[in-house]
Amino acid sequence: MPNFSLPALLPIGLLICSNLFMTIAWYGHLKFTDRPLWVVILVSWFIAFFEYCLAVPANRWGSQFYSPAELKTIQEVITFAVFIGFAIFYLGERLTLQHFVGFAIIIVGAAVVVRA
Prior knowledge:
Number of helices: 4
Radius of gyration: 16 Å
Order of helices and strands: HHHH
Structural class: mainly alpha
Oligomer: single chain
Helix content: over 70%
Shape: flat
Number of domains: 1
């Protein structure tokens, strides 16, 4: 039975927040192709700093409740969810059925890891 206590959910909340920062750092610059690459690299590093400030404690505290494989799997599922929203709402991407089927297959694999 999964542990749904606040301390067990805190790492998941931190991973969600860290993924928001990392998705912005990795993909946000795609709307600013007129900027020099060195500028977007520096801005991305600055944004990624905050991602690390959230991800490191999430994994440290999360290891009290989840195995490293479970933490990584949870993080990957969160990454897909955050990326889908970001791609649609910020980048204006149109995701196809093929994208969703691929993501679903990965999520099923994640479920296998977490339930093992």
